[in-house]
Structures are given as C-alpha cells and as structure tokens.
Amino acid sequence: MYRTLAPLRAPPPCLPVHPCGFTSDRVGPGPGKTGGRTVGCVPLLPVPIRRSVLHPPRLSLDSPPPPPPPPPPRLMLLLLRYRDPARHRITSRHRYSHRHRRCPQSPFPRFKEVCDPRGSVTQRGGEGVTVRMESQVEEPMVLELKRQLDDEDLDLEQRFNLLNSGLNRVLNTAAVQTDSSVLTHVKSQLYLSGVLSHCILVLSQDPRKLRGNWSGAATLAQLTSSCCVGVEPDRRSEAFHRLFLPSVMDALLSLASQLMKQKECVPLFRKVMDSVGWLLRSHTWLTAQVLSSAHYERIQMCDDVAVSLLCVQLWIQICSASRDFLPGLSDNSVMLLLNEAVGQLAVCPDASVGGASIRLILLLANQQEQRVQPLLLGFKGLDSLLDKDWRGRGFDKDVNQLIALIQSDGGRRSQSQVDTERVRAACVIQAAWRSYQTRRRVKSLHRVMSTLQKRYRALKRHQQQQREAQQWEEELKYQVCLRRQQARRRFHQKQRELLQLLPAEQVQPYLQECERRAAIVIQSFWRGFRERRSYNDTHRHTLKLMQTRTQAAKTLQRAVRQFLQKRRAAKAPPIPPFWIGQKGLTDSRRVELRRQVEEYTSLHPSSRVSSQECERLHEEVQLLIRSELQRGEQQRREEERMEALLAHTHTQLELLRDAPPLSVITATAAESFLSPSGPIATRARDAHNAILQASRLPWWRTLGETAGVDEINPANLQELEAELGGLFVGGSTGVAKVSEVDGRHL
C-alpha cells in the first residue's frame, strides 16, 4: 500500500496533519503501483507505509489512523527549501482561499503563518508581535519517534524505554526554548502524531505483561500526564476532551490500582497518583470520572494506611493549588469527596489519615461554605463520631472547628427544608418499591406469556376437536339417514315388483291386509301413549296427596306432643332448692335420724380420721354453709330492694298518668304526689318487715306450715341453736338489720 503527500485545503479532524500544512491522503493508483502529485513545482514521491501492531484499525476519534512515516529530515529540508513562498503566503484579503488559510496545527488560531524557503515558520499576531518557532528541530524528533514506534519487532520493555527516552528528549529540548509556546506546540504535535495514543496503548496492556516494568510504566504515566497538560488540539478539541483524556485517566487509575497491590511499589504508586493530580488540576471536569471509576474504588477499599493517606492528600493538594477547582465541580462530585473523607474517619483508625480527612473537609467548607454545609448535614452522627473517636489525637483544634461547623447550621433548618427532605425520602422509597414491582412483573412476564400461550393453544385445540367431532357426527347421521332412505326405496321398489307378479284377484286382499296391520300399529302406539299419560297423571296426583297427608300428620303430631309436654310439666311437682330437705321431715324425725347417725358412728369409728378431725371438718362445712347462706341473703335483699323501687316507680307513673292538668290541680292534690297516704305506707312497711323476718328463719322452719313471725325472737333463736347443736347460727344481728328497711321511704 502506498500513500503520497498532497496539499489539503481543509484537513478533516480524523487525518493526521503535517506540521507544514500537509496531510496524508491516498492518491496513488493502488498497491504495487506508483503515483505522485506535484506541490507547486516540487514533485512528491510516494512513500510506502507499514501498519504497526500497536495501531489496529479503530473507529473512535481519539485514536486516528496511523500517519505515514515522514521522509528523512534531509528530504524534509529539501521540500521546505523548494517550497514556493508566493503560493503559501497568507494575506488578510484572501483569508479563506486555498492559498490563504489558518494553520491547522498552530496553537494560536488568530495568528497567520508565512513559510520561507529556509524552512522556518513565522507567525505574526494582530498586535505586531512576531514569534519565531524553531520547529525544524522538534518536529523531526517527534516524527522520528513515531517512525521508531511503528516497528513491529519491538517488545514491551523496548517500547517503554523508547517512549520514556524519546518523550524526555523532546520535552527537554522544547523546555529550554525561551518561548513557552514552543512546548505547547510540541505537546500538540505529540498528540496529533499519535505518540500519546501509543503511550495509552502501552499503559493499557495486561497487568501480567507489565510485571517487571513497573518503574518504566510509572515514568511513562508521569510523562503522558505532563504531555496532556497544555495541549491545544484546535479542530480536534472535542475528540481530545471527550475521548482521549478519559482514556488517559482510566489508564493511570488502572496502573495505580495495580501498583497498589505491590508492597514494594509504594513510591511508584505515589508518582502515578501525583500524575493524576497534575492532570486533574488542568482538567477539573475529569474529577467525576475519577470518583466514579471502579479502579479508584478499589484504591479506596485498600486497607493500607499509606494508600489511604495518599488518596486524601491528593485531593488536599488539588484543592489547595487551585481555588477554581471546587467551584467547577458538581454537587455529586463534592458529595463523593465528602463521602470519601467521612468514610476514612469512620473506618480508618490511623491518626494521620483522620487528620488529613478532617483538613480536607475544612478546606472544602472554607472554599464553598454554602454548598458544603448542607451536604454535611446529611451525615447523621458525624459530630458525635468526631467527639468520641478523634479527640486527643493531636489535632483537637481542627476537630473542634469541624464540630462547630456542623452544629452551627443544625438549628437553621426550617420546617420547609425538613418537609422537602421527607418528600425526597418518600420519593426514593416509592421509586424503589415501584422499581421492585416493575422488575418482579417483568420477570414474571415470560412465565405468564408462556402460560397464556399454552392455554390459548389448548383452547384452540379443544375447539378444533369439538368441530371435528361435530362434523364427524353430522356426517355419520347423514350417512345413516341416506342409507335408511336408500333401503326404504329398495324395499318399496321390490314390493312394487312383487305386486306386479301377483294375480289380479290377490292384489286387493293383500292391500287390505297391509292397511289392517298399519292400523294396528297406529292404534297400539296411540293406546300406549294414552296409558302412559294417564299413569303419569295418576302417579303425580297420588304423590301430591301423600305429601299433603304426611305434612298434615307431622303438624298434628307436633301439636299433640307440645300439648302432652305441657300437661306433664303442669302435673310434675316443682323441684325444691338444694338446701331444702325431704318433705314432711319434722323435728322429732330429725332428732331420731341424728341419734341413729351418732350410734352408727360410735359403733363403727373411722380408722383413718379421728373424732377431732371430724369435728374440725364439720365446723369448716358449717362455715361454708353459713357464708353461702349469707351471700344468698344479701342477693335476696338486693332483689327485694330493686322490686320495691320498681313498684314505687310504677305507682308514681300511674299517679302521674292519671293526674289532672296543672290548670285545675289543687294544693291538696299536689301534696298527694309528694307522699302516699299513711295507712298504705304503714301496711306496706309491716308486710315488708314480716317478709324479712320470715326470710331469716332456719330452713327447716319453712317446711310445712310456717309459724307466725311474732313467735320468732332472739331467745327462741338461741334455744333452737342449742337444741340443734350449731346447725343454725342466728342472733340479734339478723333481726336488728330490719331497721334498715323500716326506715326506707316507700
């Protein structure tokens, strides 16, 4: 494959541009042939180009196709010497013509280039200042380095040595120049020629291939980051910032994460992290990529104190070196920085790491107080963590300052901010729940769809089977009817043929016999139908009659059983209470039974229980009976009192219901509503006292005819108690309580 050098009016950004205004473009007739194009009066010879292993075909903008190897420096000087200055002099009148254009490689887009026969490039600014760049020294060095890198026979170690020595030589040569723009131009040439892309490809190799070359890789990373600072890619600025710089940062972080695992490579790790910091100072927008990078997360999760301290010191140096660094960050990036610092405070117990983390938070707060203070409030318990774990470590002043900073804004949060945080928290919870429901629904869609398809196909299959069965049945019925019809037709045809063979005198009798048989068949069918209908009607009537009779019998039997049950209940004696003895038990009978019991117990004494134990048990039983009777007596008192109150209430209601209107009532009638008449009240009180005295009689006194109430007095009660031996315990207490009812107002 051959390519030639040709002049370019407007070089596209994807093609490497020559420092003198040319670009590589294929104009030759093809492989194996030669072709050329003249520039002014100088013919340019085709130059063969070989592809390099380190430059496979790429589609991204940051890795353009490899440029053709430049001619030797002597040939370049000849080309520059015989270049027509009149055709390439730029004037202000023809700025956009093919003769008068901007220099695509110039870091100063407003400057105009003039190429003289000696090969030097002169740039004239609008203010009359002339800057003379000695590119005939630096650019051949860059092209020579590029040509050496295209060699496929170089191994990885040789590429490291070549890149490190070549970049050092080019940068040192440009740095000794008095004009600072020379260094910028050289860095731009390194990027546009693809040398920096070679560096990224070498640094991105498999970590197993980099073993033994860690020092060269760290040096190359430092040189690459230095070359990326101050580059002015002009028309390829978008590709440089969007694609190339992120790839450089990713390669540096990947190398740092590999050096972190090597115990003996801590100085090299520090060198690579310094390169990352140098790159971040110039390109602040790469901070978000660094904080969200997986390689940097692995570095943060390292348990080595030196690594954690280097990470924190990196951000302190970046923030201290440039006060424009933090304002250029987004809130998410600032929050990630705070997360790293607070995470080190919570996890790492080393005093140096804790002091550096606190200084980083204070530095962020001093530069951006309005942004950092609300973010610090999101770390609940940070002030208590600082107070408990980080006092007495040698930096109490910084700890107190940070605690004061956190607590100073704690009481300023208004209710609206609290409501906003609650709404945000509710939104987060709802979003998480809805996303979980959506994921679960999407996960079950496949199973639901397969089930739906299976059921739909089964339904279609069943419907098809039903249709086929129906069609088969209809076809069978049609075939049966058709065969029957054909059989009848054959039978009648045969019958007509047989009638034709009969004599004339036998035809009429035969027809009459046929009519008689047909009449018999019709009559038999009719009679059978009539008998079946009559039997069904009779059977239905009989069943209805039997059902009616059964229902009537059930009703009569139910009524008779209820009547007999009521009769038996009326004739049955009432069930006496459990404390009532046998009917007709008198005092003499009771004394006789008591004597028999005593005789039996004296003749048959118990071998298990003594007499004293029996007396004790007897006394306990008496006490239990007494308490039970007292509870029953109290209940009866309450019932009687309730009945008295209800009777009094009903009486008052009847009086009020029958009372005359207020317009005609007299004073005497009004007083009758206040208190009832004297005789009625006296009689009611006497009857009530009699009932109360009767309720206090012993249970055996209520058997048979009851004695008068006047016969019961305290003396008689004591005699009865002595006679019965303590079965009844009475006294004046029960009688004295009558006075409580006597004073009741009825």
TrEMBL record:
Q: Which InterPro entries match?
A: IQ_motif_EF-hand-BS (IPR000048), IQCB1 (IPR028765)
Q: Which domain of life is it from?
A: Eukaryota
GO BP, one annotated term:
cilium assembly
GO CC list: cilium
Q: What's a single GO MF annotation on this record?
A: calmodulin binding
Looking up PANTHER family in the UniProt record yields: IQ CALMODULIN-BINDING MOTIF CONTAINING PROTEIN 1 (PTHR15673), IQ CALMODULIN-BINDING MOTIF-CONTAINING PROTEIN 1 (PTHR15673:SF2)
Name this polypeptide is given? IQ calmodulin-binding motif-containing protein 1
Organism name: Xyrichtys novacula (Pearly razorfish)
